[in-house]
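Let's inspect one such protein example.
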Amino acid sequence: MTGKPAQPDQPRPRRIAIALELDHPYPWHHECYQGILDYAEAFAWHCIVDPHLVGPSGKVEVTSYDGIVGRISRHVADAAREHNIPIVNHWGNSPAKDLPTVLYDQRTGARLAGEDLVERGFRHFAYIGFARDASFHVDFEGLSDAVVAAGFQPPTAFTVKRSFETQWNAFAQFRLALQPWVAELPTPTGLLVSSNIIGRYLAQICRELGLRVPHDRAIIVQTGDYTIGTCARPTLSSVDHDYFTTGYRAAGMLDQLMRGEPVLRDRPLFIAPRRLVIRESSDTFITPNEQVTEAMRYIADHAGHALTVPQVADAMSVSRRTLERLFELHLGQSIYATITRFRIDFIKRALIDSKAPLAAVAVDCGFASVSHFTEFFRKSTNITPSRFRRQHQG
């Protein structure tokens, strides 16, 4: 009697619980999820979205999984430790301690926001965040790092309860307290806020108070949703956090644990932000001299062109010599240096945001040839445009 030869037993795919609440439309949930799945596909993991790890008994169930990754609660962490199930957290507010953790780097994001506001000429700063979040102190400290290093006073702070989004009485208290606080800030003030939701209401309150955004109150959001940020009026500047890589690296750390390899445990692994996305809510420049301020705004508006110093002076209806003197007096740098800095920032955004060939990006940025474009960028940044794009498109 003949038959098929016996097949060796195939190892079953690893069963991985992804502890994420995907009913919330937050990019830090969904893009982390995409990063986890991208890593999992390479190893044919069987991934199951199970936000609370609740089994048929209605209790926390971990024993059916080979590993757990996501927003880890204390109960899940305790159960996983009891059964020796590898676990990786990527929730900054997790009450569970001493877990292998991967987080997007909010402190660096807050520092980038502070540095940009300082560069734009702001001398007063403030922060609005959720009172009980661990991120409140992280954001505040990152913003403080930037402004204190530049020689200015630390920011003032305003705390918000998360219930303001869902409870009418909490929302009423939020508005009643925020309005006078915003009104009493020095003009102009640059503000970092923890979320797009807060940023949208802040802009609305500024309008009610007759304050101009961004000239009187500039707003940058720490963590936000692209749709909310671009649909708001004004559109909201924000930190572009790399949530995808956060999820991907969390899955990679879980893989190490399941293979019995050591991982970083004494502190989180932080994933750096991609960049700061400047939109209408902070796109302004403040100097003690109105001519310099207007000239900087003109340069920013024409950063995608081969702008010359005489063109800027003509647009301001002032002599080149006078404008050069004002720039050196109030900014400590020449008009040409300012044009170059703004043009490089414009090119960087174009390289990151577009997947068009370098030749097309060069034309969009006002260059006649790729070679001239590459040389200009390399001379100013010590890196070629193609390498910069590879590093930041990730």
Summary: Residues 335-353 form the longest helix (19 residues). The chain is about 45% helix and 15% strand.
